[in-house]
């Protein structure tokens, strides 16, 4: 029998053939086996405001989780729930069939998924799936998809909307881009995080999320302008918000942020810095599309003003502060007795 020689090691062609077939069969099995707690090992990279709650839902659903976060202490609550802590995205992927990422910026996504030595794709075996849920660039989603396919893996972009409250309740809107069959298989996991909508090929999930952010930008401006107007007109602003909440001006933004603004709770939630990142990606896309969206540009400028005042780490409801500064006027502070 013909031998392949490699230093002291000798393999027969038959052995090599068997090894290749084994890898192919493992790959095909991994790509077709239904996802379930008994079949599927899950990895999670990024355990901040959103990732922490989302990951906890999967652990409670019975999946075994391996997690990584830059600041390890932020993964402690998940380790207490039963997750294994890994030292790098690569190590997460080496122990997982499906790897989720929920980090901050596109540069973080690139680093945790595509870094040649420490990144998740480098550690993922054939048939594995990357699911990036960070709000990031559509072109980067396509780049990750191409790199994953070249390695015999798969990738899906699946950014979300619904805020920290949606993440806690497992009620996020999930916008998925990639192979439709892969997204369908992933529903077994995604159903624990919210409701998934398939938006089209790779990058289309990110495009949908960015369109969502265009909408929210102007919605937030409308919300805080209405509150300023109501206050200046002598209305009780809490009563005003209650009155409009069931009418045409009602919105998820009002539900999520109205009472936080009234109680002057500007904790994130959703970081101003992340919203400026999202709106900046949208504006860049608009420039290359030749699309004029003045409402988007206005919202981005108002949020940049928060950053200029050193308030980028507040939640997006802090937009009221910009309007207060513009008008030299403050909404009333809550009385100490109010809840
Ligand atoms: P976050 O609290 O800052 O969480 C991001 C986590 O990822 C942090 O714990 C961070 O580590 C970790 N991380 C970032 N870069 C990393 C890297 N290179 N390597 C390892 N870990 C890294 O932010 P979030 O609010 O959860 O938001 C996450 C993403 O979801 C953002 O893209 C945001 O725009 C999007 N989003 C947020 C909301 C919301 O309401 N919060 C809603 C929808 C979408 P550290 O702990 O060391 O900082």
From TrEMBL:
GO terms for molecular function: NAD binding; NADP binding; oxidoreductase activity, acting on the CH-OH group of donors, NAD or NADP as acceptor. It comes from the Eukaryota. This is 3-hydroxyisobutyrate dehydrogenase-like 1, mitochondrial. Keywords: NAD, Oxidoreductase. The active site is at 209. Residues 41-199 form the 6-phosphogluconate dehydrogenase NADP-binding domain. Residues 203-322 form the 3-hydroxyisobutyrate dehydrogenase-like NAD-binding domain. It comes from Psophocarpus tetragonolobus. Pfam families: NAD_binding_11 (PF14833), NAD_binding_2 (PF03446).
């Amino acid at each position: 029998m013909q031998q392949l020689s490699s230093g002291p090691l000798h393999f027969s062609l038959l052995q090599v053939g068997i090894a290749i077939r084994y890898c192919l069969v493992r790959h095909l099995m991994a790509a077709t086996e239904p996802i379930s707690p008994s079949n599927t090992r899950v990895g999670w990279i990024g355990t901040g405001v959103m990732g922490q709650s989302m990951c906890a839902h999967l652990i409670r659903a019975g999946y075994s989780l391996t997690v990584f976060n830059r600041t390890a202490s932020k993964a402690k609550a998940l380790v207490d729930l039963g997750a294994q802590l890994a030292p790098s995205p690569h190590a997460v992927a080496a122990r997982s069939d499906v790897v989720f990422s929920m980090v901050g910026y596109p540069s973080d996504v690139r680093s945790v998924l595509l870094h040649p030595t420490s990144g998740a794709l480098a550690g993922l075996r054939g048939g594995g799936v990357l699911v990036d849920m960070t709000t990031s660039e559509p072109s980067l989603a396509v780049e990750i998809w191409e790199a994953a396919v070249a390695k015999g893996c798969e990738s899906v972009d699946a950014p979300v909307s619904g805020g920290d409250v949606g993440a806690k309740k497992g009620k996020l809107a999930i916008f998925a881009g990639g192979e439709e069959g892969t997204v369908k298989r992933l529903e077994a996991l995604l159903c624990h995080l919210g409701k998934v909508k398939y938006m089209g090929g790779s990058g289309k999930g990110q495009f949908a999320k960015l369109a969502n952010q265009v909408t929210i930008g102007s919605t937030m401006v409308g919300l805080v302008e209405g509150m300023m107007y109501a206050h200046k007109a002598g209305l009780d602003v809490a009563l005003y918000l209650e009155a409009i909440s069931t009418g045409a001006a009602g919105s998820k933004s009002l539900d999520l942020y109205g009472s936080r603004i009234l109680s002057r709770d500007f904790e994130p939630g959703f970081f101003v810095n992340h919203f400026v990142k999202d709106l900046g990606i949208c504006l860049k896309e608009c420039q290359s599309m030749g699309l004029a969206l003045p409402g988007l540009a206005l919202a981005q400028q108002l949020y940049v003003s928060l950053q200029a005042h050193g308030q980028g780490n507040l939640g997006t409801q802090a937009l009221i502060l910009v309007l207060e500064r513009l008008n030299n006027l403050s909404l009333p502070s809550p009385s100490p007795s109010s809840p």
